[in-house]
Structures are given as C-alpha cells and as structure tokens.
Amino acid sequence: MSLFNLPPIWMAPMAGEAASAALVAAVSAGGGVGQLGAAYLAPARIGEVAAEIRARTDRPFGINLFWPQPWMPDAAGLDAYLQRLAAWHAELGLPPPTRPERFEEDFEAQLEATIAARPAVISFAMGDPGPARVAALKAQGFKVVGTATQVAEGRLLQASGVDAVVAQGYEAGGHRGGFLGSPEGALIGTLALVPQLVDALDVPVLAAGGIADARGVAAAQALGASAVTVGTAFLLVDECPLSPAYREALVAAGDADSTLTRAFSGRFARGVANRVTHELEGAELPAFPQPNAASRPLRQAAAKAGRADFISLWAGQALPVNRRPGSAAQLVAALSRGWRA
C-alpha cells in the first residue's frame, strides 16, 4: 500500500469513450485505483456511473473533473470551424454541422454530484480549486488531488491544501492539465518534471505520462514519485469500451504518430495523428470548449462508421510500449511488478 493507504498504480482519469463503470471498477478490483473521467458527464450521469462502479466493486476509486475554463464566445471563429467540419459531415452522410446548444456541463452541479457519489479521491485538471474549496472537500473526508505541468502550478496547488499533485509530463495522452501561462501548459517531460516537483513540494507526487509497463513504474519511483497514473495502456484492456475503429488505430499506430493538437477541442491534447489533425494543423480555432462541443457529432458518427480519420484518438507517447495487456487486473499486476514495496 502507498499513497493514502491506496495502491501505487492508478488509472489516469479518461473522459469520453473510456469513461465507463466497467473499466474503473475493473482497475480498482484488480488492485489499482480506478478513476472516472467525468468532465463531459451530465451531473445525473455521474451519480449513475458511480453507482454502477460500486455495484461491481467495493474497492476505492476516484472521480476527476476539469476545473472551469474561462473562455469568450467566438461566433465568427465557431462558424469558420463549422465550415471546416461541413465537408467531413457530408462525407459521413451527416446533416451540416450546427452551433451546439450547450458547450459544457454545469461544473457546480457536476461537483455536487461527485460529492454525493462519495469517491475516495476527487481530482482536478486544468486549474487550482483554491484553499476554500479544497478545505471544504477535505472536511467531508475526500482526498483532493490537483494536476501540474510545471513547478509553479504544483506550488500553487500545494498552497491550496491539496493532498497530492499529479505531475503530468509532456508524454501524457489526452488534454493538457496545465493552467498557468499558455493553455497547453508547460511542455516538460515526465523524466524532468517529476523530480523537480518532488524537490519543490512537501505533498506526494504522482507521475503521469510515458508510463506503460513495469520499467516506467520503476523509473517513476526512482524519481521520487509516490504513485503512478497510467492512461494509454488501459485503453486496450478487455474492459475498456473503445469503438473498434479507435482500438484498431491505437494498435496500428507507430512511435512517431503521436501529436499534440487543438483540432478537435480547441485545447492542446495528445493523440494519434489522423486526417483531422493534419488538415487543421496550424489553423486558428475558437477557444475550448467550443470546438469540443461542435466536433462531438462528427466524432461519434465516425466511431459508429469505423472511420478513425475523424475520431479524436487520444493516447500518449508510450502507446507502442504495451498494446496487448489483457484484462485490467492483469495490467495492474504487470505494472505493480515495477514498484518496490
């Protein structure tokens, strides 16, 4: 046992297709700490999924939310983005894209639902909850974890009272969790970031990014991490409900196919390069979450149609390291072999 008397192998919270009760529960039941990426879930759905997790396991799990992002409506930018999507919609036989009625869920309602769900851990990305919010959550018995992409963010999170900080390296798949400076956060690799945060902070540090097997786990521990969070490797376990097109694209991707892109959401995220990322490379896009909401119908239809060229194929740079892990429990066991008690 390690951090908070929890196992040292955590599943990184992954939203979208991977946000399933079966996967989270399988990781926790298998000896790790499953985390639900709830950033895109309606408040009522958060409660439903948490109940499904508890029906599958009595082991602790976490729930992760995106801290609210300041953004300005950009009607002209959004219309230009919709125009770019229109040809791809037509190619898939979809109606022309339209402005979304809603761009994001109500964060306060999401947090209220998360609190009601009573996970062991509540974690945040893309922001600092602040001392009052952290203290209130801790007073209710939750462990609170923040995400940092640079030392300054880690120090700010520690000052707010978080119980631990995730060091999200440049290699990590999915959205960048930074919140100081540019929207993508500092682009520091895990190997450099973890020891800097360990040296700068008094709270435990969890290593994230580029960790997919026991060797990565051992390296993170040697750097001073108190636990690791692994995302990409769990995308291919038996319990993860990825669409066949997404799964096949991950299996086929090469080591040089990883890219950081704003193409699907308006915010930097790491995934496998495809037609959308190539054709929108360098394009001026409206701020997150406007493209994220606008591109959702295309991504969902593409998944059903088996068209990986139109799916946001979020995955980290360590994708080729471990692409046939079996069950979630088997992957947790394999990763755990890298952690020295």
UniProtKB/TrEMBL annotation:
One of its GO terms (molecular function) is monooxygenase activity. It comes from the Bacteria. InterPro entries: Aldolase_TIM, NMO. Keywords: Detoxification, Flavoprotein, FMN, Monooxygenase, Oxidoreductase. It catalyses: 3 propionate 3-nitronate + 3 O2 + H2O = 3 3-oxopropanoate + 2 nitrate + nitrite + H2O2 + 3 H(+). The keyword Zinc does not apply. Its cofactor is FMN. The keyword Oxidoreductase applies. SUPFAM superfamilies: Inosine monophosphate dehydrogenase (IMPDH) (SSF51412). Belongs to the nitronate monooxygenase family. NMO class I subfamily. This is Propionate 3-nitronate monooxygenase. It comes from Pelomonas caseinilytica. The lineage of its organism: Bacteria, Pseudomonadati, Pseudomonadota, Betaproteobacteria, Burkholderiales.
